[in-house]
Design a protein that fits this description.
It contains 16 helices and 16 strands. With 492 residues, the chain is of the alpha/beta class. The chain has 2 domains: 281 residues, Rossmann fold; 167 residues, no CATH class. The strands form 5 sheets. Strands 5, 6, 7, 8 and 9 form a 5-stranded mixed beta sheet that branches. The protein has a 4-stranded parallel beta sheet with strand order 4-3-10-11, sandwiched between helices. A 3-stranded mixed beta sheet has the order 13-12-14, with helices on one face. Helix 1 links the parallel strand 3 and strand 4. Bound molecules: adenosine monophosphate (AMP) and zinc ion.
Length: 492
């Protein structure tokens, strides 16, 4: 099945064709490590995680690079404010970010072995700036180096901005700006009092933010690669500048074949951002006892090219969705034990076995089909829950049929597929302890023997272990689901 993505560069949805057969080079702009990432940032990181997981699920080997911006205007300003050396200051937020990634079950970028940090890649940036100077695309002014926007006729193509022509000598020194003017921007900033600096052929200084990503992406993925992703705020000037720097230095176009940008997470119609103060960090929400998986579901639930308005109400809805997935999986696990132990009588069933297989296979196909169409998440998730409903139906109405080995396999495969693609981890983190499994077996024996007194005693024993028991129909096994979950404490 072919996959298509909406490419910001061409402004259209197109079939994805990797430059090298079966391999995908993916660069995602990493966090600026001057504070804890907020869940707006994580909307973008979760979308990028879905993108990578789906490419891998589709058989591609993905080389995923995500940098850490540990030197720029913001990191320097904050470290100075806290009176800490830059490296010591940023390390706090590198650790926090990596911890948060694990909490949200984001795949660890797999190339190179460690996430590249801007401060460790200064030589690659200096080389790139030297190439730009040689090509006439950059110039020196008072110890700093600037990109000459006028030398790059394609400037503005990615953002489709109607940029006014640069007036000679108009330059910008700050990393972030939103001018409607094609402004020469700093590649290398001359050393300043209170700023860290590195030696360069142009004297001591430090890189501008935009050159960092050009240097790191090309170092690890080559001069041309497949996909570059980020939030929509990065289109201009960051990604526009990356294209200008990279293409002017190598002469090879396009620098990146496909650009994917996610829309912002909003709060009351405004972008969630540190500067507006309207943000929650992942840690804020976890302190309020929100389940990370519910946060993941909530951030994923709307198509990446549509804005998503954040409310705590959405998180409650997502929590219900996670509960539905978990409950279904626990019931499956309970019954799978009976299947394995061949405790249940397999009797003739009202529906032929292949009907279940066909329905679940159809749901799995619909999921991949929806995601192949520019990651159509709403459609894909509706088929996830359609599959869950089918599994529930079989478990509740045709238990003895369900425990047939083939149907168990079909259900297990479906859960695994969901986990692989969406990173929900239903089958990874959920298990039923051995003592509960044993009690379930005893309960089955007691109920089959119509020993209702013993059955009631066993049920209480299971409930005391914080599991709810759901009895099957006469002669059929019972199942359990979790009563208290880690994240079910009252919210503050
Ligand atoms: P930063 O740490 O500011 O460099 O941002 C890291 C990533 O988060 C970038 O891809 C940004 O585009 C993205 N981002 C920032 N704010 C939001 C938001 N409110 N919604 C979605 N993505 C965002
Ligand atoms: Zn970047």
């Amino acid at each position: 099945m072919s996959i298509s993505f909406f490419n910001t560069r061409t402004g259209s949805k197109e079939e994805f064709k990797p430059l090298q057969k079966d391999w995908v080079g993916l660069y995602t702009c990493g966090p600026t490590v001057y504070d804890f990432a907020h869940i707006g940032n994580f909307r973008t990181f979760v979308f990028e995680d879905l993108l990578r997981r789906f490419l891998e699920f589709s058989g591609y080997k993905v080389r995923h690079v995500m940098n850490l911006t540990d030197v720029d205007d913001k990191t320097i300003a904050e470290a100075n404010q806290k009176k800490m050396p830059l490296a010591q200051f940023t390390q706090i937020y590198v650790d926090a970010f990596q911890e948060d990634m694990t909490t949200l079950n984001l795949l660890v970028p797999n190339h190179p072995a460690e996430q590249p940090r801007a401060t460790s890649e200064i030589p690659a940036m200096i080389d790139l700036i030297a190439k730009l100077l040689k090509a006439g695309a950059a110039y020196e002014s008072d110890g700093s180096i600037y990109y000459r926007v006028a030398a790059f006729p394609d400037y503005g193509k990615l953002s489709r901005k109607d940029l006014k022509q640069n007036q000679k000598g108009v330059r910008v020194d700050v990393d972030e700006y939103a001018r409607e003017e094609a402004t020469d921007f700093a590649l290398w900033k001359k050393t300043k009092e209170g700023e860290p600096s590195w030696d360069s052929p142009w004297g001591k200084g430090r890189p501008g933010w935009h050159i960092e990503c050009s240097a790191m992406s090309m170092k690890y993925l080559g001069e041309n690669f497949d996909i570059h992703a980020g939030g929509e705020d990065l289109i201009f000037p960051h990604h526009e500048n990356e294209i200008a720097q990279s293409e002017a230095a190598t002469g090879k176009r396009p620098f990146v074949a496909c650009w994917l940008h996610s829309k912002h997470l909003l709060v009351d119609g405004e972008k969630m951002s540190k500067s507006k103060g309207n943000f929650y960090t992942l840690r804020d929400l976890i302190a309020k006892s929100y389940d990370p998986m519910a946060i993941r579901v909530s951030l994923l639930s709307v198509h990446y090219r549509s804005p998503l308005n954040f409310t705590l109400r959405n998180l409650d809805d997502a929590k219900e969705a996670v509960r539905k997935l978990d409950d279904c999986y626990f019931q499956y696990l309970s019954l799978a034990q009976f299947g394995k132990n061949k405790l249940s009588h397999v009797k003739s069933t009202p529906l032929p076995e292949h009907r279940f297989t066909d329905k679940i296979t159809e749901c799995a196909d619909e999921i991949t089909c929806a995601l192949s169409d520019d990651l159509n998440i709403s459609k894909a998730l509706s088929h996830v829950f359609h599959g869950i409903t089918e599994i529930n139906f079989w478990m509740n109405s045709c238990v003895t049929e369900f425990v047939k080995e083939n149907n168990l396999k079909v259900a297990a495969h479906f859960f695994k597929t969901i986990d692989q693609i969406f990173g929900f981890d239903i089958s990874q983190v959920n298990s039923i302890s051995g003592d509960v499994i044993k009690l379930l077996g005893e309960l089955y024996v007691a109920r089959t023997a119509k020993d209702f007194q013993s059955a009631q005693k066993i049920r209480s024993q299971i409930e005391n272990l914080d599991w709810a028991v759901k009895d099957g129909r006469a002669g059929e096994p019972s199942s359990v689901k979790k009563v208290k979950r880690v994240w079910d404490q009252p919210k503050k």
